[in-house]
User: Which sequence fits this backbone?
């Protein structure tokens, strides 16, 4: 036989359940407004980085006009690398390297380097110099009419096996394509200007003057004394 106390407790539990269900039903009909603090947190705008013009203006406003002018007037740093092997076309590139190295002594913003090494060393040179512009001069047979060819490429990050992309350069290849493949792994995003000498089949000396003319034009355009 159920006593009065047990009956009373059952009534209380049933009433509590009924109240909870009713309260939940009412809340579904009239949703509560969001917590003001939470609403403020979730609707805050992310701070935007100031653009270059804003940063320059702020520096000027704080009395750093001289610093702004110095930064804006800094000449671009140019890195010219020469890639050559032990061949007749390679000898021409090497001679042009020596010529350019001497001429660039008059241009403090131009650095001339020997890129005839592995990609890791070339990447270290780029990291050390922090150039604004990179130019690579080399010889490459691509079945074109003999001459001087210029191109520009952006080193796109590769999805291929990085070790395979590095392998040829690290094993001693001094080919421009092998170097660029490796730099896609080591320095993705870099823009490289390439000057390629396509040698004739029988001789290399016939185009030496053309290559020197191209180098002189680069020095004239890029040199900031």
Assistant:
């Amino acid at each position: 036989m159920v006593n009065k106390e047990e009956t009373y407790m059952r009534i209380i539990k049933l009433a509590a359940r009924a109240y909870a269900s009713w309260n939940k039903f009412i809340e579904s009909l009239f949703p509560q407004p969001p917590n003001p603090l939470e609403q403020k947190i979730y609707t805050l705008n992310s701070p935007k980085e100031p653009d270059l013009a804003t940063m320059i203006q702020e520096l000027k406003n704080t009395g750093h006009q001289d610093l702004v002018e110095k930064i804006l007037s800094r000449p671009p740093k140019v890195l010219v690398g020469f890639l050559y092997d032990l061949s007749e076309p390679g000898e021409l590139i090497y001679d042009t390297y020596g010529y350019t190295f001497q001429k660039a002594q008059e241009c403090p913003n131009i650095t001339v380097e020997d890129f005839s090494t592995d990609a890791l060393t070339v990447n270290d040179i780029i990291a050390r110099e922090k150039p604004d512009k990179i130019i690579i001069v080399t010889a490459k047979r691509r079945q074109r009419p003999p001459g001087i060819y210029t191109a520009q490429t952006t080193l796109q990050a590769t999805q291929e096996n990085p070790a395979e992309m590095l392998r040829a350069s690290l094993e001693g290849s001094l080919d421009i394509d092998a170097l660029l493949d490796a730099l896609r792994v080591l320095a993705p995003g870099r823009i490289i200007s390439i000057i390629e000498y396509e040698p004739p089949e029988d001789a290399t000396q016939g185009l030496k003057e053309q290559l020197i003319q191209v180098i002189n034009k680069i020095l004239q355009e890029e040199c900031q004394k």
User: Anything to note?
Assistant: The chain is about 50% helix and 15% strand.
